[in-house]
Amino acid sequence: MVSRGIDGVIIDWYGPDNSIDQATQLVTTQAENHPGFTFAIMIDRERSSGTRVLVVRRNKPG
Amino acid sequence: MSELQYIEHTYFPSPAYMTIQGQPVVTNFNVDLSYPSVDWNATTAALNTHPSFIFQNNSGFTHVLTDGIYSWVMPTTTDYGVGYPASFYDAGMSHASEQTVGATYKGFNDTLAAWGSNRIVGQQCDQTWLQTFSKLNGMYNAGKPLPYLQLVTWNDYVEAREIEAGTDDCVTILASVAVNAL
Fold first, then answer.
1. Residue from the list A1, A32, A43 with its beta carbon closest to the beta carbon of B31
2. How far is it, in rounded angstroms, from Cα B48 to Cα B75?
3. pTM of the full structure
4. What letter does residue A21 receive in the DSSP assignment?
5. Phi and psi torsions of B24, nearest 5°
């Protein structure tokens, strides 16, 4: 993602203590290892399976 | 929404967590639709850190606690969803002090999803992808940039809108052999 010019991800998050939450914690570690790359949470209580990650381009400093 | 307390505890402390003007960003998907009784004020009052809430679609500006809105693919329209962005960006421009998170997407198809309802936005050989860019490029520029852009999505394969695998521009290569030449 970084090599493609993506600044970060918004993670479709279904709540705590499930596989998506575990994946989010892995993303956290990866993002911290790539300075400038950020992540955020999108709370989604509508679905309970699958993963979708949105990517973000930023034009303003955070 | 005890989830917000969990998010605050688990994710906000990360130096990689996205912030806007120092506030950690939290968005939500269809919470208004599925849980209209959510008391955002009470939820936020239970937190130690006030998030920057980015709500969904134009109506997101109606929330008292809104810090902005984000757009999403509109699979129920018959115009490949490209009419909706104009309305969305108009709303964003009329709330210049709030954040506007635009969106581009290559298409949508939930016919294979367990929750699917046969909604399809065709890729049109990349034209849907390009048209969503054209919409925002027609309203924003280097002097007036769109604050944020979402690429919807990276890996939502089940709804056929993943860009991780690229887009389909319908270009094909046909190889043939004539004598010793390929």
1. A43
2. 38
3. 0.88
4. H
5. -65, 135
